[in-house]
Amino acid sequence: MATAATYRLRPRTAGVLPVVALLLLLAVGAGAAPAAAGGLPAAQVVPAVTAAYGPTGTLAVVLAWQEVPAEGLSLRAAEARSARVSAATAGNDLATRPFPTASLVKLFLAEQLLHLARTGAVVLSPDDLRRMADMVRRSSDATASDLWVRFDGNRLVRDVAARYGLSGTAPPRASGEWGETTTTAEDLARFLARLPVVADPDDAATLTGWMGAVMPVAADGFDQRFGVLGAAPGAPAVKQGWMCCLAGKRHLHSVGLIGTQVVVLLSEVPTAVGWQAARAALSAAAAAVPVTSGP
Predict the structure, then answer these.
(1) Which of 142, 213, 234, 263 registers the highest number of CB atoms within 10 A of its CB?
(2) What residue spans of 14-125 are helical by DSSP H?
(3) pLDDT exceeds cutoff 70 at 25
(4) Residue 83 predicted with pLDDT over 70
(5) Is 81 within the bounds of a domain?
(6) Which InterPro entries match (predicted)?
(7) How many domains does the structure of the chain reveal?
C-alpha cells in the first residue's frame, strides 16, 4: 500500500513535527528472564535503538518472545513464567499509542479468515488461499479490498482483536478504508507473540510461512527491503506496511519474527521526509535491535 488512491485518502492538514520516541518491551515465554544481547539490560538497549533511528520522525518499537503452549506445566509454573514475562519488560508510554496499520492489517485479516475457515464459519477456495498468500507476501491491496468486502472486514478486525486481547486495535472510522484500521505496537507484539497459543498450529504455521516468503518488491512496486526485512540477520518472517498521507504524515512499518523473537517497528514521519529517508531510518533501528537465540 503506497498511495492515497488505494484507500481514497483525503488530504489533511499537517501537524507539528513529531518527536522521536521509543517503546521497548521484552517478554520471555520460558526459562530465566534474559538480558538483551551481549548481556545488556533492556534499559541500556532503549537509548541505543532510539539513537540509531535518529531525528527522522516518531518511532515505536516492541520486542517480545513468542509464547509457547503451557501444556504439561503446573499452575505454579505457569504463574512463575508470567511473572518472568513482566519482570523482563521495559518501555515508555508509546505502548498504547495508536497508529494506522497500513498493510499490517492484512495479518489480522489472514489469521481471522484461516480461523473461521477451520471452524467452518466460512469457506475459502484454493484460489482464496493463493490470493491470501499473495496478500501477505506481495502485500496485494486488491486481495485485501476484496476480502474486506466479502467477509466484512470491520467484523474480522473486531473478532481477531477479541480473540487475542488487542485492546488498542479497532476498525477504521470510514468503512472500507482498511489501511486506516488502528492498532498499537503493544497489540502487534501481543498478536505475534500469542500466535502459537491462540491460533491452530497449522494456521500459525501457514501465516508465518507466508511471512517467511515475503517478496523483495510488493504488488504495487514498493521495495519491501527495509526495517526487519532489510536489516535483520538470517531469514526473518515479516510483514511490511506503508501509507501516505494521513494528517500530513507518511507511515512506514515493519514487523517480524527472527526465530521466536518478535520485532515490531512502527514509524511516522512528515510528508516532507521522503520514503528513502524514512526507510533508511527504520532499517537503522532494525539493525540496532539486539537479536538473541531465545530465552
Answers:
(1) 263
(2) 42-53, 75-87, 105-119
(3) no
(4) no
(5) yes
(6) Beta-lactam/transpept-like
(7) 1
